[in-house]
Amino acid sequence: MKKIKPNTNYQPYEIDTGFINSELELVREEYPSDIMTIFRATLMTLLTQKNIVTIPFSEENAAIIEQLGRQNPPGLWDLTYFRFWYQNNPVEALNQKPYITHFNESCLISKNEEIFGFDSFDLYFALRLNLTDLMQTFNFLDYQLGKNFENNFAQFKVFLEQLIRKYKHLFLKEAVVESVVSWLGQDRQTMFDKTQELEKIEWLGTQKELAELFLELKRKGWLKDIPIKLIQMYFTESNSIDQVLNPYYDRLSKLPTYEKIFTPKYKPKFDTIRNKSTDN
Predict the structure, then answer these.
(1) What is the pTM of this model?
(2) pLDDT averaged over the chain?
(3) Which of 94, 111, 166, 276 supports an S-S bond with 221, CB 3.0-4.6 Å?
(4) How far apart are CA 7 and CA 200, in angstroms?
(5) Distance (Å, rounded) from C-alpha 54 to C-alpha 104?
(6) Phi, psi at residue 55, to the nearest 5°?
(7) What is the secondary structure of 22-83 as a DSSP string?
């Protein structure tokens, strides 16, 4: 079996645990050990909770995974961890299926995410903010204001101020803090208050159907890109559409697959949209 690489298609400005982990591997010594321990522990739980897998179960994979477990190559546990998927009935030990999850596997986290009751959003946000290129800090904050705080500037301002108080003396870089203070000092209140006054487009389908619609419009040439941020801003039923539209990539073809949309029970609604004609 060829090694199945993790999905590292990290979306810009998202709080993606895979991106955070991959970047932390390069600057680990700059962070307190207890912060790294909390991050890794909650990350393992989060990936389990979301059923995110890098090397899935198959009869062939099972033997290889078990062999890796016995050999325990040096450094392997720094990159991946072994788990068991309880197929069908979780009580039946005979249905245990082994698989591997890579810590760099893409996994998005949102403000309301609870990792088995443990609220880790502020830590993940602080780490992602600290790892953001300074030239992109304003773009990151603009995106997060809309994505996780529904353009509520006052609420976001309080969150950022508390975040700085909590993590400034632990690992937040001075230049990052200065950038956040500068961003907060700009006249953004009026602009985002006006955005909040806009009425959202009421989508009468499901979130999967909305995601499929925009995916088909892109596939058929009607859209260049899928404007996820704008969809969340202006459509109902779109709070976590960014996760639904976060693709996996086929190991052989390298093409994106959207397994969170096209589940076995899902019946496509917009697959008959015609391709955009080049003849006008």
Answers:
(1) 0.62
(2) 81
(3) 276
(4) 33
(5) 9
(6) -115, 105
(7) HHHHHHGGGS-HHHHHHHHHHHHHHHHHTT--SB---HHHHHHHHHHHHH--TTHHHHEEEE
Helix (H) / strand (E) containing 175: helix 174-185
Residue 63's pLDDT is 66
Nearest by Cα to 196 from 140, 145, 159, 137: 145
Whether 223 has a pLDDT exceeding 50, the answer reads yes
E-strand ranges in the chain read 80-86, 96-102, 248-249, 256-257
What pLDDT, in 10s, does the model give residues 151-173? 888 999 999 999 999 999 999 99
3-class state of residue 254 by DSSP: coil
48 vs 130, residue with greater confidence: 130
Contacts for 11 with CB less than 8 Å, ≥ 6 apart? 108, 228, 242, 246
For 125, the token pair is 């946000």
Question: Which residue from 213, 137, 227, 216 is spatially nearest to 173, judged by alpha carbons?
Answer: 137
Each residue's pLDDT tens digit, 120-135: 899 999 999 999 999 9
CB 239 within 8 A of CB 232: yes
Which pLDDT band, with edges at 50, 70 and 90, does 196 fall under?
low
Give the distance from CA 89 to its chain's centroid: 28
Going by the DSSP 8-state scheme, the letter that residue 164 receives in this structure is H
Question: Which residue, 143, 149, 180, is CA-closest to 163?
Answer: 180
